[in-house]
Amino acid sequence: MTRGPIRLDVAVGYAAPRAGVPAAVSFRKWVAAALEGRIREADLAIRIVDEKEGRALNHHYRGKDYATNVLSFPAELPDGVTLPLLGDIVICAPVVAREAHEQGKETIAHYAHLTVHGVLHLLGWDHMNDKEAEAMETLERQILDSLGFDDPYRE
């Protein structure tokens, strides 16, 4: 059984050392699970970056002078243009590895969670208030459970 959209194009680029970073096939699987039942066609890019690039992007786009774990950039298409382009996700490998260690999580589980989290942002989900955060976290838990991962928010 194929999971996810009927057509899915996920370009994965590695701009950081690949040691400890999942293969592109894993990212595609996680994206497909996040999109399952929500969208029929999708194009998106995932870029794995080092701390320097992660910090520069976070500073430029969010005004925060540190590298963060995941950034999502929803596509901004001109009016009247309908493409299955969702946008881009940037994941900072050193931050993911550090957080997974600090939180006692498997690194692959943390990558899966951040990928799902990033995809949901591309779909318009957010966590700017408690109600939004609770709804988004519930959906993340369901998607990750379907992939065989534990609750990422469990203490």
Explain what you see.
The chain is of the alpha/beta class. It is built from 5 helices and 4 strands; from the N terminus they run βαβαββααα. It has a 4-stranded mixed sheet with strand order 1-2-4-3. Strand 1, helix 1 and strand 2 form a beta-alpha-beta unit. Helix 1 crosses helix 4, helix 3 packs across helix 4 and helix 4 crosses helix 5. The chain is globular, with a radius of gyration of 15 Å. The chain starts with 6 loop residues before the first strand and ends in a 9-residue tail after the last helix. The mean pLDDT is 93.
Produce a short descriptive summary:
The protein is α/β, with parallel strands linked by helices and 155 residues long.
Tell me the total number of β-strands. Answer: 4
Outline: globular
Strand order of the largest sheet: 1-2-4-3
Residues in helices, as a percent range: 40-55%
The helix count comes to 5
Average pLDDT, rounded to a whole number, is 93
Sheet of most strands: 4 strands, mixed
> Beta fraction of the residues?
15-25%
Distance between the termini: 34 Å
Low-confidence stretches: none
Q: Spell out the helices and strands N to C.
A: EHEHEEHHH
Rg over C-alpha atoms, rounded to the nearest angstrom: 15 Å
- Structural class of the helices, strands and pairings? alpha/beta
